[in-house]
């Protein structure tokens, strides 16, 4: 039996496929390659290029492959873009989920692990954020992911389709041997941008706001290493296979780092100056997002290996040094 990974050519998807294959899973990848990279997909995964909104294409994949479960990463995921173009997010993310669930139901596939986000919480007052914290998304991206979670919930009630929604906080780093890593175009995320400055590909980092209500005035985030994050998906598949009920889990490190602390940590790791300038706040950025991941540790048995921020940044740095232009498929 095989696991279908939708979006398996993307940043988190490709690391999850890699970990799954190394643990002996039979893996089928579907990706439309709009943002993913063919080179990022493990050569032992069977690859189909296509879009999960295309029901006929999806039916063909489900017909020829012995799929017993799905891991769903395929989505648009830029907060700023979602505010400017909400319908893109409702189409790609929500309509994509509807088509996927329909085909899963047709083929009697009952397990799905879903890539959700801290953006479903919006800007809660509490820290750390637990799964009981009310959801209140502040942008169409977070709203679309919450809608997708709710679609799975109602399909569980109606068809007994069980799901695990993994709400990621900030993901960073690369595979420890630097063979796969993060390559977005355009790049908007803090860690790769800092490292591109360290490599001389950008002149400086712009820090988006230093007037937040935090000790140094810059935003605080909770960074989790991508291979640790990938492992949580495998544990979630096993959790569903063992007959457990549908659940939502936060995935973070329980530690918050400010933008300035991340910059200092990257200076240590790279031994480079990394110039930075202060800029205005970026619209829609919450001041502090730190996860409580106790539930994932207790129920899934998740044990993140990386607890040190410099060690996380080091894995990203190794990838950037060895692949300064990212994947060579552009
Ligand atoms: N930042 C800068 N300068 C930059 C880029 C980022 O100061 O050039 C700051 C941001 O303002 C933020 C922090 O660095 O405070 C982290 O920003 P990222 O863009 O790396 O990540 P986000 O926290 O905005 O977003 C991430 C995921 C989203 C997800 C969100 C959930 O990328 O997909 O977490 O909160 F929705």
UniProtKB/TrEMBL annotation:
It catalyses: UDP-alpha-D-glucose = UDP-alpha-D-galactose. Residues 3-252 form the NAD-dependent epimerase/dehydratase domain. Its cofactor is NAD(+). GO terms for biological process: galactose catabolic process via UDP-galactose, Leloir pathway. Transmembrane segments: none annotated. GO terms for molecular function: UDP-glucose 4-epimerase activity. Its EC number is 5.1.3.2. InterPro entries: Epimerase_deHydtase (IPR001509), NAD(P)-bd_dom_sf (IPR036291), UDP_G4E (IPR005886). Keywords: Carbohydrate metabolism, Galactose metabolism, Isomerase, NAD. Pathway: Carbohydrate metabolism; galactose metabolism. It comes from the Bacteria. Coiled coil: none annotated. Homodimer. Belongs to the NAD(P)-dependent epimerase/dehydratase family. This is UDP-glucose 4-epimerase. It comes from Enterococcus florum. The gene is galE3.
